[in-house]
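Batch job 17 of 40 flagged for manual review because the log was empty.
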Amino acid sequence: MDFHSIQQRDCLVRVVQADPEPLLVILPTGDGKSLLFLVPASLPGARITVVIVPYVGLKDDLVAKAQAASLHSAVFTTSLQEPVPLIFASTEHMLENGGLLHYLRLMSERGQLEHIVIDACHVVLTDMSYRAAPLQRFKRLVEFKCQLLLLTATLPLTEEPQFVNTMGLTSEMRLQTMRCATGWPNLHCRVLGIPRAVGRNCDILGPPLMNLLRERAILALGERGIILCLFVHDLEVYQSMIHRNGALCYQPQIYHSKLGESLRSNTLAKWLDIGGWILATKGLGVGIDVPKLRMVIHMSFGQQDTLMEYSQQVGRAAWDGISGFCYCLHVHEDPESMSTALTPGSEALSNYLYATACRRQTLGAYLDSEAAICGAGDSPCDFCDDTLSWGLTPP
Protein backbone atom coordinates (compact mmCIF):
# COMPACT_ATOMS: atom_id res chain seq x y z
CA MET A 1 0.00 0.00 0.00
CA ASP A 2 1.28 3.47 -0.92
CA PHE A 3 0.97 6.20 1.70
CA HIS A 4 0.72 9.98 1.30
CA SER A 5 2.99 10.52 4.30
CA ILE A 6 4.78 8.80 7.14
CA GLN A 7 2.17 10.28 9.48
CA GLN A 8 -0.67 8.63 7.55
CA ARG A 9 1.11 5.27 7.69
CA ASP A 10 1.82 5.55 11.42
CA CYS A 11 -1.77 6.61 12.12
CA LEU A 12 -3.14 3.60 10.26
CA VAL A 13 -0.92 1.27 12.28
CA ARG A 14 -2.24 2.76 15.52
CA VAL A 15 -5.85 2.49 14.35
CA VAL A 16 -5.54 -1.10 13.15
CA GLN A 17 -3.97 -2.02 16.48
CA ALA A 18 -6.90 -0.23 18.19
CA ASP A 19 -4.64 1.48 20.71
CA PRO A 20 -6.77 2.53 23.71
CA GLU A 21 -5.45 6.12 23.71
CA PRO A 22 -7.55 8.67 21.78
CA LEU A 23 -5.83 9.78 18.58
CA LEU A 24 -6.01 13.28 17.06
CA VAL A 25 -4.95 13.34 13.40
CA ILE A 26 -4.34 16.58 11.46
CA LEU A 27 -3.53 15.74 7.84
CA PRO A 28 -3.94 17.96 4.75
CA THR A 29 -6.97 17.62 2.52
CA GLY A 30 -6.44 14.71 0.14
CA ASP A 31 -3.91 12.94 2.38
CA GLY A 32 -6.19 9.98 2.98
CA LYS A 33 -7.84 10.50 6.37
CA SER A 34 -10.83 8.37 5.36
CA LEU A 35 -8.45 5.46 4.81
CA LEU A 36 -7.93 5.40 8.57
CA PHE A 37 -11.44 4.03 9.12
CA LEU A 38 -12.15 2.35 5.78
CA VAL A 39 -9.21 -0.05 6.06
CA PRO A 40 -9.91 -1.29 9.62
CA ALA A 41 -13.59 -1.85 8.73
CA SER A 42 -12.55 -4.03 5.79
CA LEU A 43 -10.41 -6.45 7.81
CA PRO A 44 -11.67 -9.97 8.61
CA GLY A 45 -13.40 -10.11 11.97
CA ALA A 46 -13.68 -6.33 12.18
CA ARG A 47 -15.81 -5.03 15.02
CA ILE A 48 -17.90 -1.86 14.77
CA THR A 49 -16.51 1.48 13.62
CA VAL A 50 -18.93 4.40 13.96
CA VAL A 51 -18.09 7.54 11.96
CA ILE A 52 -19.83 10.73 13.10
CA VAL A 53 -20.00 13.32 10.33
CA PRO A 54 -21.02 16.98 10.78
CA TYR A 55 -22.26 17.78 7.25
CA VAL A 56 -24.78 16.06 5.01
CA GLY A 57 -22.62 16.42 1.88
CA LEU A 58 -19.61 14.91 3.64
CA LYS A 59 -21.68 12.00 4.95
CA ASP A 60 -23.04 11.26 1.47
CA ASP A 61 -19.50 11.34 0.07
CA LEU A 62 -18.15 8.92 2.70
CA VAL A 63 -21.07 6.54 2.20
CA ALA A 64 -20.30 6.52 -1.55
CA LYS A 65 -16.62 5.74 -0.82
CA ALA A 66 -17.60 2.81 1.40
CA GLN A 67 -19.98 1.47 -1.25
CA ALA A 68 -17.30 1.83 -3.94
CA ALA A 69 -14.98 -0.25 -1.75
CA SER A 70 -17.73 -2.89 -1.33
CA LEU A 71 -17.66 -2.46 2.45
CA HIS A 72 -20.54 -3.67 4.60
CA SER A 73 -21.79 -0.34 5.91
CA ALA A 74 -24.97 1.42 7.00
CA VAL A 75 -26.31 4.88 7.72
CA PHE A 76 -27.43 5.08 11.34
CA THR A 77 -31.12 5.12 12.22
CA THR A 78 -32.78 4.61 15.59
CA SER A 79 -34.09 1.24 14.35
CA LEU A 80 -30.55 -0.10 13.99
CA GLN A 81 -29.85 -2.58 16.79
CA GLU A 82 -27.44 -5.04 15.21
CA PRO A 83 -23.69 -4.73 14.64
CA VAL A 84 -22.47 -3.47 11.26
CA PRO A 85 -18.70 -3.10 10.62
CA LEU A 86 -18.99 0.52 9.41
CA ILE A 87 -21.75 2.93 10.43
CA PHE A 88 -22.11 6.57 9.38
CA ALA A 89 -24.03 8.92 11.67
CA SER A 90 -24.76 12.62 11.60
CA THR A 91 -23.95 14.99 14.44
CA GLU A 92 -27.66 15.49 15.15
CA HIS A 93 -28.04 11.77 15.94
CA MET A 94 -26.33 12.62 19.24
CA LEU A 95 -29.57 14.33 20.37
CA GLU A 96 -32.04 11.52 19.75
CA ASN A 97 -33.52 9.63 22.69
CA GLY A 98 -32.68 5.99 22.18
CA GLY A 99 -30.43 7.15 19.35
CA LEU A 100 -26.71 7.03 18.70
CA LEU A 101 -25.51 7.23 22.31
CA HIS A 102 -27.84 4.37 23.24
CA TYR A 103 -26.54 2.27 20.34
CA LEU A 104 -22.91 2.98 21.24
CA ARG A 105 -23.54 2.00 24.85
CA LEU A 106 -25.28 -1.22 23.77
CA MET A 107 -22.49 -2.25 21.39
CA SER A 108 -19.81 -1.27 23.92
CA GLU A 109 -21.41 -3.44 26.60
CA ARG A 110 -21.39 -6.35 24.15
CA GLY A 111 -17.68 -5.79 23.43
CA GLN A 112 -18.43 -5.15 19.75
CA LEU A 113 -17.41 -1.48 19.52
CA GLU A 114 -13.87 -0.91 18.22
CA HIS A 115 -13.64 2.71 17.00
CA ILE A 116 -15.58 5.95 17.27
CA VAL A 117 -14.48 8.42 14.60
CA ILE A 118 -15.34 12.11 14.43
CA ASP A 119 -14.60 13.37 10.94
CA ALA A 120 -14.02 17.11 10.48
CA CYS A 121 -13.71 17.26 14.27
CA HIS A 122 -12.73 20.94 14.18
CA VAL A 123 -16.48 21.72 14.08
CA VAL A 124 -16.56 21.50 17.89
CA LEU A 125 -14.82 24.89 17.72
CA THR A 126 -16.14 26.44 14.49
CA ASP A 127 -19.82 25.42 14.73
CA MET A 128 -20.45 25.68 18.48
CA SER A 129 -22.26 29.02 18.14
CA TYR A 130 -25.21 27.44 16.30
CA ARG A 131 -24.94 23.67 16.96
CA ALA A 132 -24.03 23.64 20.64
CA ALA A 133 -26.57 21.03 21.73
CA PRO A 134 -25.25 18.06 19.69
CA LEU A 135 -21.61 19.14 19.76
CA GLN A 136 -21.52 19.41 23.55
CA ARG A 137 -22.52 15.76 23.70
CA PHE A 138 -19.27 14.79 22.02
CA LYS A 139 -17.81 14.79 25.54
CA ARG A 140 -19.89 11.67 26.20
CA LEU A 141 -17.93 9.73 23.60
CA VAL A 142 -14.91 9.36 25.88
CA GLU A 143 -17.01 7.13 28.15
CA PHE A 144 -16.97 4.15 25.79
CA LYS A 145 -14.37 1.39 25.83
CA CYS A 146 -12.96 1.81 22.34
CA GLN A 147 -10.49 3.97 20.45
CA LEU A 148 -11.62 7.55 19.78
CA LEU A 149 -10.25 8.81 16.46
CA LEU A 150 -10.45 12.57 15.76
CA LEU A 151 -9.81 13.63 12.17
CA THR A 152 -9.41 17.05 10.59
CA ALA A 153 -7.41 18.92 7.96
CA THR A 154 -7.29 22.12 10.00
CA LEU A 155 -6.61 22.60 13.67
CA PRO A 156 -4.14 25.38 14.49
CA LEU A 157 -1.65 24.63 17.26
CA THR A 158 -2.94 27.63 19.17
CA GLU A 159 -6.50 26.20 19.11
CA GLU A 160 -5.53 22.66 20.18
CA PRO A 161 -5.82 23.25 23.97
CA GLN A 162 -9.35 24.63 23.56
CA PHE A 163 -10.25 21.68 21.33
CA VAL A 164 -8.96 19.18 23.90
CA ASN A 165 -10.92 20.89 26.67
CA THR A 166 -14.12 21.09 24.60
CA MET A 167 -13.89 17.37 23.83
CA GLY A 168 -13.53 16.53 27.52
CA LEU A 169 -10.12 14.88 27.02
CA THR A 170 -8.10 14.76 30.23
CA SER A 171 -4.37 14.19 30.69
CA GLU A 172 -5.11 10.72 32.11
CA MET A 173 -6.50 9.69 28.72
CA ARG A 174 -3.08 10.29 27.13
CA LEU A 175 -4.25 11.84 23.87
CA GLN A 176 -1.85 11.09 21.00
CA THR A 177 -1.50 13.73 18.26
CA MET A 178 -0.15 13.33 14.73
CA ARG A 179 0.18 16.43 12.61
CA CYS A 180 1.33 17.44 9.13
CA ALA A 181 1.65 20.97 7.74
CA THR A 182 -1.70 21.88 6.20
CA GLY A 183 -0.88 24.81 3.90
CA TRP A 184 -1.66 24.72 0.17
CA PRO A 185 1.49 25.21 -1.95
CA ASN A 186 -0.49 24.46 -5.12
CA LEU A 187 -3.29 26.96 -4.41
CA HIS A 188 -3.41 30.49 -5.86
CA CYS A 189 -5.01 32.76 -3.22
CA ARG A 190 -6.83 35.87 -4.48
CA VAL A 191 -8.89 38.45 -2.57
CA LEU A 192 -11.14 41.15 -4.01
CA GLY A 193 -12.22 43.71 -1.41
CA ILE A 194 -15.21 45.63 -2.75
CA PRO A 195 -15.84 49.08 -1.21
CA ARG A 196 -18.90 49.36 1.02
CA ALA A 197 -21.89 50.95 -0.76
CA VAL A 198 -25.62 51.34 -0.21
CA GLY A 199 -27.51 48.10 -0.73
CA ARG A 200 -27.33 44.41 0.11
CA ASN A 201 -24.07 42.52 -0.06
CA CYS A 202 -25.45 40.52 -3.00
CA ASP A 203 -26.02 43.74 -4.97
CA ILE A 204 -22.49 44.98 -4.16
CA LEU A 205 -20.68 41.71 -4.88
CA GLY A 206 -22.81 40.56 -7.82
CA PRO A 207 -21.21 42.69 -10.59
CA PRO A 208 -17.60 41.74 -9.63
CA LEU A 209 -18.68 38.07 -9.58
CA MET A 210 -20.13 38.40 -13.09
CA ASN A 211 -16.85 39.95 -14.31
CA LEU A 212 -14.78 37.29 -12.57
CA LEU A 213 -16.76 34.44 -14.17
CA ARG A 214 -16.53 36.05 -17.63
CA GLU A 215 -12.92 37.22 -17.59
CA ARG A 216 -10.80 35.19 -15.20
CA ALA A 217 -12.45 32.26 -13.39
CA ILE A 218 -12.81 30.20 -16.55
CA LEU A 219 -13.04 26.44 -16.28
CA ALA A 220 -11.81 24.00 -18.90
CA LEU A 221 -14.11 21.24 -20.12
CA GLY A 222 -14.74 18.75 -17.31
CA GLU A 223 -13.34 21.02 -14.58
CA ARG A 224 -15.45 22.12 -11.61
CA GLY A 225 -15.87 25.19 -9.45
CA ILE A 226 -17.86 26.06 -6.33
CA ILE A 227 -19.36 29.45 -5.48
CA LEU A 228 -19.82 29.36 -1.70
CA CYS A 229 -22.44 31.61 -0.09
CA LEU A 230 -23.55 32.35 3.45
CA PHE A 231 -27.29 31.88 2.95
CA VAL A 232 -29.65 29.87 0.76
CA HIS A 233 -31.26 33.14 -0.37
CA ASP A 234 -27.87 34.32 -1.66
CA LEU A 235 -27.58 31.21 -3.84
CA GLU A 236 -30.85 32.05 -5.54
CA VAL A 237 -29.91 35.71 -6.03
CA TYR A 238 -26.55 34.90 -7.65
CA GLN A 239 -28.10 32.17 -9.79
CA SER A 240 -30.59 34.71 -11.14
CA MET A 241 -27.81 37.28 -11.74
CA ILE A 242 -25.71 34.78 -13.67
CA HIS A 243 -28.70 33.88 -15.85
CA ARG A 244 -29.70 37.54 -16.52
CA ASN A 245 -26.16 38.73 -17.25
CA GLY A 246 -25.08 35.77 -19.34
CA ALA A 247 -21.94 35.37 -17.22
CA LEU A 248 -22.05 31.64 -18.03
CA CYS A 249 -23.55 29.82 -20.98
CA TYR A 250 -25.61 27.72 -18.56
CA GLN A 251 -27.42 28.21 -15.27
CA PRO A 252 -25.45 26.65 -12.38
CA GLN A 253 -27.32 24.38 -10.01
CA ILE A 254 -27.94 25.15 -6.35
CA TYR A 255 -26.91 22.81 -3.51
CA HIS A 256 -27.71 23.12 0.19
CA SER A 257 -28.75 20.89 3.09
CA LYS A 258 -32.40 22.02 3.00
CA LEU A 259 -32.95 20.34 -0.35
CA GLY A 260 -34.72 16.98 -0.12
CA GLU A 261 -32.35 14.03 0.02
CA SER A 262 -33.24 12.84 -3.48
CA LEU A 263 -32.87 16.28 -5.08
CA ARG A 264 -29.64 16.92 -3.19
CA SER A 265 -28.14 13.63 -4.35
CA ASN A 266 -29.28 14.17 -7.94
CA THR A 267 -27.87 17.72 -7.97
CA LEU A 268 -24.50 16.55 -6.70
CA ALA A 269 -24.42 13.58 -9.08
CA LYS A 270 -25.19 15.81 -12.08
CA TRP A 271 -22.44 18.26 -11.13
CA LEU A 272 -19.94 15.45 -10.66
CA ASP A 273 -20.93 13.99 -14.03
CA ILE A 274 -20.98 17.17 -16.15
CA GLY A 275 -18.69 19.57 -14.28
CA GLY A 276 -18.88 23.36 -14.41
CA TRP A 277 -19.97 25.69 -11.63
CA ILE A 278 -22.29 25.00 -8.70
CA LEU A 279 -23.69 27.44 -6.12
CA ALA A 280 -23.61 26.02 -2.60
CA THR A 281 -23.60 26.75 1.10
CA LYS A 282 -20.47 25.87 3.03
CA GLY A 283 -21.44 22.25 3.82
CA LEU A 284 -20.36 21.30 0.29
CA GLY A 285 -16.96 22.86 0.96
CA VAL A 286 -15.99 20.49 3.76
CA GLY A 287 -14.55 17.01 3.45
CA ILE A 288 -15.63 16.09 -0.08
CA ASP A 289 -12.91 15.14 -2.54
CA VAL A 290 -14.28 16.35 -5.87
CA PRO A 291 -12.37 15.33 -9.04
CA LYS A 292 -11.01 18.25 -11.08
CA LEU A 293 -12.24 20.88 -8.64
CA ARG A 294 -10.08 23.81 -9.70
CA MET A 295 -11.74 26.92 -8.28
CA VAL A 296 -13.55 27.99 -5.11
CA ILE A 297 -15.14 31.44 -4.87
CA HIS A 298 -16.25 32.77 -1.47
CA MET A 299 -19.00 35.35 -1.58
CA SER A 300 -18.47 37.35 1.62
CA PHE A 301 -18.10 36.10 5.20
CA GLY A 302 -20.04 36.29 8.44
CA GLN A 303 -18.56 37.73 11.65
CA GLN A 304 -18.32 34.21 13.10
CA ASP A 305 -16.48 32.74 10.10
CA THR A 306 -12.89 31.75 10.80
CA LEU A 307 -9.66 31.13 8.94
CA MET A 308 -9.90 27.49 10.05
CA GLU A 309 -13.21 27.05 8.21
CA TYR A 310 -11.92 28.97 5.21
CA SER A 311 -8.89 26.67 4.94
CA GLN A 312 -11.15 23.61 5.00
CA GLN A 313 -13.27 24.99 2.20
CA VAL A 314 -10.54 26.21 -0.17
CA GLY A 315 -8.57 23.01 0.38
CA ARG A 316 -11.10 21.23 -1.81
CA ALA A 317 -9.45 22.92 -4.81
CA ALA A 318 -6.00 21.66 -3.82
CA TRP A 319 -6.54 18.11 -2.57
CA ASP A 320 -5.32 16.31 -5.73
CA GLY A 321 -2.00 18.22 -5.89
CA ILE A 322 -2.86 20.07 -9.11
CA SER A 323 -2.85 23.86 -9.18
CA GLY A 324 -6.13 25.48 -8.11
CA PHE A 325 -7.54 28.94 -7.41
CA CYS A 326 -9.48 30.37 -4.50
CA TYR A 327 -11.10 33.77 -4.83
CA CYS A 328 -12.64 35.81 -1.98
CA LEU A 329 -15.12 38.53 -2.84
CA HIS A 330 -16.04 40.49 0.27
CA VAL A 331 -17.38 43.90 1.18
CA HIS A 332 -14.44 45.93 2.44
CA GLU A 333 -14.91 47.10 6.03
CA ASP A 334 -12.61 49.08 8.27
CA PRO A 335 -10.63 46.37 10.14
CA GLU A 336 -10.14 48.71 13.12
CA SER A 337 -13.89 49.04 13.63
CA MET A 338 -14.30 45.23 13.57
CA SER A 339 -11.56 44.26 16.01
CA THR A 340 -13.60 44.37 19.23
CA ALA A 341 -16.15 41.86 17.90
CA LEU A 342 -13.70 39.27 16.58
CA THR A 343 -12.83 35.86 18.01
CA PRO A 344 -9.24 34.60 17.50
CA GLY A 345 -10.35 32.54 14.48
CA SER A 346 -12.32 35.36 12.86
CA GLU A 347 -9.52 37.81 13.63
CA ALA A 348 -7.13 35.47 11.77
CA LEU A 349 -9.52 35.49 8.80
CA SER A 350 -9.64 39.29 8.92
CA ASN A 351 -5.83 39.40 8.93
CA TYR A 352 -5.85 37.18 5.84
CA LEU A 353 -8.44 39.25 3.98
CA TYR A 354 -6.82 42.59 4.82
CA ALA A 355 -3.22 41.41 4.51
CA THR A 356 -0.68 43.84 3.07
CA ALA A 357 1.88 41.16 2.19
CA CYS A 358 2.00 37.44 1.30
CA ARG A 359 -1.29 35.73 2.18
CA ARG A 360 0.38 32.31 2.46
CA GLN A 361 2.49 33.73 5.27
CA THR A 362 -0.66 34.74 7.17
CA LEU A 363 -2.30 31.36 6.50
CA GLY A 364 0.74 29.31 7.52
CA ALA A 365 1.39 31.33 10.66
CA TYR A 366 -2.13 30.63 11.89
CA LEU A 367 -2.61 27.00 10.81
CA ASP A 368 0.86 25.56 11.39
CA SER A 369 2.78 28.27 13.27
CA GLU A 370 5.09 28.41 10.23
CA ALA A 371 5.00 31.85 8.60
CA ALA A 372 6.53 30.86 5.24
CA ILE A 373 5.96 33.11 2.24
CA CYS A 374 5.22 31.85 -1.27
CA GLY A 375 8.37 30.12 -2.46
CA ALA A 376 9.79 28.57 -5.60
CA GLY A 377 7.40 25.93 -6.88
CA ASP A 378 4.43 27.35 -4.96
CA SER A 379 1.34 28.74 -6.68
CA PRO A 380 1.79 32.42 -5.76
CA CYS A 381 -0.82 34.46 -3.95
CA ASP A 382 -2.02 37.79 -5.35
CA PHE A 383 0.77 39.69 -3.55
CA CYS A 384 3.55 37.40 -4.77
CA ASP A 385 2.37 36.97 -8.37
CA ASP A 386 4.29 39.54 -10.43
CA THR A 387 2.22 38.72 -13.53
CA LEU A 388 -1.15 39.40 -11.92
CA SER A 389 -3.19 42.33 -13.17
CA TRP A 390 -6.75 42.20 -11.90
CA GLY A 391 -8.46 44.38 -14.48
CA LEU A 392 -11.66 43.94 -12.46
CA THR A 393 -12.45 45.71 -9.22
CA PRO A 394 -9.20 46.66 -7.46
CA PRO A 395 -8.30 44.29 -4.57
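Reviewer: the log was empty due to a logging misconfiguration, but the result itself is present. The chain has two domains: 6-179, 187-367. Unflagging and moving on to job 18.
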